[in-house]
């Protein structure tokens, strides 16, 4: 039986805070280091409905993926699936969670109109396979370079993309909370999925907009660089900085540091699938 290549490869820290203005925390977070899976959801809706949506997303997706990759673990037969197989699993489980949230919002009046953002990452075979809906974000700090890996699904981002608004104007816009995509608001979800190569020393940050609405990217990157050897302190500092700037929203962060490479060994079956998949995949 092959050992799990993720054993000892990742350091993960998870934190969530209600902020300074909100009575309830409608963010939900999840991490499973053995699976290399992290998920963050920022709920929206009526009284407590946002909390219901984000909780349903986290619980449904994490439980299903744990079943996919643990109860029927490919490592038990000495191999692992290719990237495209992982991407398809993520897409399938996101679609199922979307259906569950959407049907609940349609059938339970107290949950009408609820939905949630979603950003998730699965670390697999020296790569990060990321999926997202809405304006919760994934960033990467690699050396001195700090960059956003996701692209917001929001009205103001669409205006910026069209050249109708500057990034500075978008930060000040009253419409910055309007989303163009989210989980559970439509019958069919359309997440973005991307594969990003991962390297030892990389630090990945998943966050709700309660962080990046309060802090500029350069401030977030500077804090991560300063505390790159202490993820617990880095997470606490980011949340404190957001609260010090007003803490208008719930703020959640997940930090992942890649400690070493985590390649997988593929069985003949998975190797054959992997070879064919790479010729077809559109992901980088």
Automatic annotation (TrEMBL):
<protein>
    <submittedName>
        <fullName>Stp1/IreP family PP2C-type Ser/Thr phosphatase</fullName>
    </submittedName>
</protein>
<dbReference type="InterPro" id="IPR001932">
    <property type="entry name" value="PPM-type_phosphatase-like_dom"/>
</dbReference>
<feature type="domain" description="PPM-type phosphatase">
    <location>
        <begin position="11"/>
        <end position="258"/>
    </location>
</feature>
<dbReference type="InterPro" id="IPR036457">
    <property type="entry name" value="PPM-type-like_dom_sf"/>
</dbReference>
<dbReference type="InterPro" id="IPR015655">
    <property type="entry name" value="PP2C"/>
</dbReference>
<dbReference type="Pfam" id="PF00481">
    <property type="entry name" value="PP2C"/>
</dbReference>
């Amino acid at each position: 039986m092959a050992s799990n290549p993720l054993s000892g490869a990742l350091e993960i820290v998870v934190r969530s805070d209600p902020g300074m203005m909100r009575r309830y925390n409608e963010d939900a977070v999840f991490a499973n280091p053995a699976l290399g899976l992290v998920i963050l959801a920022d709920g929206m809706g009526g009284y407590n409905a946002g909390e219901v949506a984000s909780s349903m997303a986290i619980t449904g997706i994490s439980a299903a993926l744990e079943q996919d990759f643990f109860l029927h673990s490919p490592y038990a037969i000495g191999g692992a699936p290719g990237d495209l197989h992982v991407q398809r699993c993520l897409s399938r489980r996101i679609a199922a969670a979307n259906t569950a949230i959407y049907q609940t919002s349609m059938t339970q009046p107290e949950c009408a109109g609820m939905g949630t953002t979603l950003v998730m990452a699965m670390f697999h075979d020296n790569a990060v396979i990321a999926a997202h809906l809405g304006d919760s974000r994934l960033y990467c700090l690699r050396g001195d370079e700090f960059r956003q890996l996701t692209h917001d699904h929001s009205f103001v981002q669409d205006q910026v993309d069209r050249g109708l608004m500057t990034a500075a104007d978008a930060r000040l816009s009253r419409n910055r909370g309007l989303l163009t995509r989210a989980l559970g608001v439509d019958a069919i979800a359309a997440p973005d999925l991307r594969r990003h190569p991962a390297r030892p020393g990389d630090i990945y940050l998943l966050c709700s907009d309660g962080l990046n609405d309060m802090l500029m990217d350069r401030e977030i990157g500077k804090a991560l660089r300063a505390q790159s050897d202490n993820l617990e302190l880095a997470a606490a500092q980011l949340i404190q900085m957001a609260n010090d700037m007003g803490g208008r929203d719930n703020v959640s962060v997940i930090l992942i540091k890649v400690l070493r490479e985590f390649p997988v060994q593929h069985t003949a079956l998975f190797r054959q699938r992997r070879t064919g998949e790479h010729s077809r995949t559109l992901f980088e």
